[in-house]
Amino acid sequence: MNKRLLGAAALVLASLIFNPAWAQEGPEVDRTATGGAQTLEDIMRRQEQQKLDDSFRSENLGNPEKAAPITEQLGTRGGVSDADTWRAIRYNQIDPTVQSPGPANGVMIQDGGISWYKLREGPIITWGGGALLGIIVLLVVFYFVRGKIMIDGGPAGTTIERFKAIERFGHWLLAGSFIALGVTGLLTLMGRSFLIPVIGHDAFSTLAVGSKWLHNNIAWAFMLGLVMTFVMWVAHNIPDKLDWQWVKAGGGIFTKGHPSAKKFNAGQKVVFWTVMLLGVSVSLSGLSLLFPFQMPLFGDTFGVINSILGTGLPTELTPHEEMQYANIWHSIVAFVMMLAIIAHIYIGTVGMEGAFDAMGSGQVDLEWARQHHDLWVEEEEAKQGKGGSS
Hints:
Its cofactor is heme. GO terms for molecular function: electron transfer activity; formate dehydrogenase (NAD+) activity; formate dehydrogenase (quinone) activity; metal ion binding. This protein is mainly alpha-helical. It has a domain at 112-163 and 237-388: Transmembrane di-heme cytochromes, Chain C (Fumarate Reductase Cytochrome B subunit, Up-down Bundle). Helix content is 61%, strand content 2%. It has 14 helices and two strands, in the order αααααβαααααααβαα.
């Protein structure tokens, strides 16, 4: 029952997002003055996003039984006018034949772009941009309240190798490409609203074209970095009972103590799996956008969700709808990843003394390592048969 309720809630939310006209009911419209045709009131109702019974149009597709004689204007059409034909196309009641075959060429009218555009220009930019500003403000406040996490007793003066060169390369390949993708993605998403008023259309056009080219090509470096870091670190990021002790102690962020940890603590494991899972998701939706109409994802995905939760999400999607869902999902996942990575960047730079060295030179202070990854240090010292190397 709970699954069905959850599924129903998800269906209602999706319906309101992609079909906002369902949100309000409107009284029946009197169309006697137009002979049953669309009225100005119909148009105004749609603009006000009120629910409108479209059957007066969707069912008015012409009647062959009322066909005019062949000698009259519409006789050769069998009672179907041009308007009737386009209404049939609009409501997907005929199967058109096109000279240039392709996955999307047979879709002659697809009005889902309006809902997609409103969602993209409205909630996606507002909530996504607000969340980015919010996390930055929170981290600034946290820094001034908590201060930088220092090495207790000061640095030891000797170092131990934390990450090898290949590990640092994989990390920076992933991190650098993600930052570039984030910047170019934000320029593409928000530039029209925020940059055109500042730099003008011509300058933004050049910037947008360059951003799009960079975004599409740097994506391959991101996916390569994702695979590299997964292969190198997945064995160290399997959750275990030690992680719960780290979580209960708050990771030592809010206290002076330092809970025990191996090579990766629970917080780093959360970041790892967040990047891996969301990275795969954003890569799949990105590939779908890079190769339009070639990689439909959401029809089948909605089918799986329906079978599990008993929902009624649409499974028969036009190629354009697949692209619209992919674009919205790509943006949402990217924003969530940016929030996680901003927090990760904070703790790895200004938030903690000695943390950046791990991915800088690969050598970290031995005392820092003992305080934050004591069990890992013990393992390394056991392997080497001695303490840290200077």
